[in-house]
Amino acid sequence: MAETPLAEQVALVTGASHGIGEAIARRLAQLGAEVVLAARSRERLEEVARGLNGRGRIHCLDLRQPQAVAEMVHAAARPHGRLDILVNNAGVGAFGLPLHETPPETWDAVMETNLRAIYLAVRAAAPYMIQRQTGHIVNISSLAAHNPVPGGAAYAASKWALNGLSYSIAEELRGYGIRVSVICPGSVDTDLVPERGKDRRKMLQPDDVAHVVAMLVTQAPQSFASEVLIRPTRKP
């Protein structure tokens, strides 16, 4: 019989159409949660939802649109009047150019998706969690939030900022029983970052990140991990 510590809970996962987000959604559904899958591609979301044994709902949107983000959160919470878990996973990369050659529209696209969208989602989701005096917010960052990334300064800046945002809202919300965590994976075998010259077989897998999310949201209530760094056992 499947373990269901998240039975009756509602989880919202952004960027759930592939990679890390898909793996997180699958793991939360296995733990018994009803999972709302959010991304742009309806076709891919429907494909992922079919693999969740009836525990998946989908919501298509552009996370750069404030009204769309608010509607996503409200749609996730509406059927049961609750939202227990928010995983802000969606992100974009911008690599290959030094900052002084990076176009403003590239900078804006990275910041809008990797940082502003998280602010918008937390702003919409927190009232539901405050009302119930419980909840989990998990933000997927990167080891780029701790290391210099030549040719990826905009991406690194967005993740450094996301970490600061996460620590700050953790302090704002912990008094309501809401736990905020940030996960910083190293090289993950996805399409987000072009890891030229690296052995993809040695990289982290999306399921490695999903495993950590599962640990965070099933942790005993008297504590929480504010940040988790994940590295591959062998350097790619």
Overview of this protein structure:
With 236 residues, this protein is α/β, with parallel strands linked by helices. The protein contains 6 helices and 7 strands. Strands 3-2-1-4-5-6-7 form a 7-stranded parallel beta sheet, sandwiched between helices. The longest helix has 29 residues, at 104-132.
Features:
236 residues, alpha/beta, Rossmann fold, seven-stranded parallel β-sheet, 6 helices, 40% helix
Outline the low-pLDDT stretches: none
Give a short account of the largest sheet: 7 strands, parallel
Q: What's the β-strand tally?
A: 7
In CATH, what is the class? Answer: Alpha Beta
Measured distance between first and last alpha carbons: 37 Å
Radius of gyration: 17 Å
Q: For the record, what is the CATH homologous superfamily label?
A: NAD(P)-binding Rossmann-like Domain
Helix content: 40-55%
Strand order of the largest sheet: 3-2-1-4-5-6-7
Fraction of residues in β-strands: 15-25%
CATH architecture tag:
3-Layer(aba) Sandwich
Q: Work out the count of structural domains.
A: 1
Give the overall shape, derived from the CA principal axes: globular
Helical stretch tally: 6
Mean pLDDT: 95
CATH fold node name:
Rossmann fold
User: What structural class should be given to the helix and strand makeup?
Assistant: alpha/beta
Which series of helices and strands comes N to C? EHEHEHEHEHEHE
